[in-house]
Amino acid sequence: MARRRAPPGGVNSPSRLGHLLAEPAPLPWLANRPYYAWLVVGTVCIGAFMGQLDASIAQLVLPTLDQVFQAPLSSVEWIALAYLLTLAALLAPVGRLADIAGRKLLYTIGFLVFVAGSALCGAAPTLPVLLASRVLQAVGAALLQANSVAIVTAAAGPKRRGKAIGIQGTAQAIGLSVGPALGGLLISTLGWRWVFFINVPAGLLGVIAGWFVLPRTAGLRHGRQPFDVAGALLLAVALVAVLLVLSKGQAWGWRSTAIALPMVVAVATVAGFIWRERRTSSPVVDLALFRSRAFSLGNITGLLSYGVTFGAFLLIPYELERVYNDSPLQAGLLLTAVPVALAIVAPMSGAWSDRVGARPPTVSGMLIATLALTALALTVSADNAAVLVVALAALGVGLGLFTPSNNSAIMGSAPPTRLGVAGGVLNMMRSLGTSLGVALSGTVLAISLQALGGPATTTVGATTAQFAVAMRVALFVLAGMALAACLLSLPRGDVRGGGTEHALIEG
Predict the structure, then answer these.
(1) What is the pLDDT along the chain (507 residues), one digit of tens a residue?
(2) Three-class SS string for 115-148?
């Protein structure tokens, strides 16, 4: 009997490898529902919530690990740093790969990898095994983060993009606010391993929901777009070097040889990456995206806003515990005013930007954040809990107004075939902004304490008066960053109605 001829290759009939990598269609009875697109947004919110929950809990467990493994702090802190470095290095390359291979495919694989990494973290018998497991967990987180905002953008379309991204922002804020309390409960009752095991059931739910709910990626051309491995490696090395400088500059010394080496590597690899991307036909990051004011200014102001956010998250607990003598629990509860306010405001801000564009909510959001940080700086040591809570809530309102509208503008400026890489760059800026805010705030605080006659390398031993003045200076620096983001948001372009795939959420 004659053997049947194999069907020719193509979009609808790819090779055997293409069949293995092909994204499945969503369940028909779900895809035909009028609210299907919101199911897509809800599915992405599982990953958004889980990612921020893990990030806030994992930081909380570090003091426990140095006791469990009898390891110095310099070793234990790599549990957090290795995760951050891996995540930042992979975000943009994974976003580009998703534009080629499919966002649904990589997003679902991301859940599987994250679950596997979390389970291995919880079962880790030694610190090196835990470190390797955290790296694997970060690979899964990169697959999730680089694709999440792109999937939401494609599903919502230009008329509902801001609202959908705002809902995703609410899920992230809830995860961030719940994390410290849940982490403390898990550590005190079930033990530190459950800080990681808690991700397993949520991740498995995400795998199932992603496989059966998310739509296929539109416009894929399997096997026709090469992936720029050299560019991805250059970018990864550059980001790792930059983050090492930001994360370790204060500890290693800004003039030390240990910091000079990553500084040189960062400059060389950034230059090499730009040279490479301008000459390849399939760049990891299409530099033409930065010709759009909405994209370039959106990412710059996004970096500044994340610097403000996580700089404040570093400084405020110090103020509460060292100036007001609050307990860590009291400080944590007061600090939740920021993510709670952000969670409430984010969907409304996103919907507002859908109607009027990104400029009004982003400018007003960063202006409110500037005023809130200024108020926090002026009232250091005032011992007025009501003013403190109002100022923290106002900071959350400002960030809630800014973030979804800014993210919507960034994603709306990217063409459909570059949504993955646009989402990767957006989240890469979040990682850089986080490190920038923590590094800058810590450095300003330390330099100010030293200038006031306090200790040079630690906050221990500084008087309350010295600490209050140093804290005021650091908060004013963050207020300046917020003001810069406000002013840079004024000339941004308006991308309402632009640049996304066919919407699942109709106008």
Answers:
(1) 333 333 333 334 444 445 556 777 888 888 788 888 889 999 999 988 888 888 777 767 777 787 788 777 667 778 888 888 888 889 889 888 888 888 888 999 999 999 999 999 999 999 999 999 999 999 999 999 888 888 988 888 778 888 889 998 898 888 888 877 787 788 888 888 998 998 999 899 999 998 999 988 876 665 567 788 898 899 999 988 988 888 777 777 778 888 889 899 999 999 999 999 888 888 888 888 888 888 999 999 999 999 999 888 878 877 777 777 777 667 777 888 888 899 999 999 989 988 888 899 999 999 999 999 999 999 887 667 778 889 999 999 999 999 999 998 998 888 887 888 888 888 889 888 888 888 888 888 888 888 877 665 555 566 778 888 888 999 999 999 999 999 999 987 665 544 444 455 443
(2) HHHHHHHHHCCCHHHHHHHHHHHHHHHHHHHHHH
| CATH class of segment(s) 24-220 | mainly alpha
Per domain, the residue ranges of the chain are: 24-220, 228-281, 288-495
What is the distance in angstroms between the CA of the first residue and the CA of the last residue of the chain? 55
Candidates 3.30.70.2750, 2.160.20.10, 3.20.20.110, 1.20.1250.20; correct CATH number of 288-495?
Answer: 1.20.1250.20
- The CA distance from 169 to 300, in Å, is 19
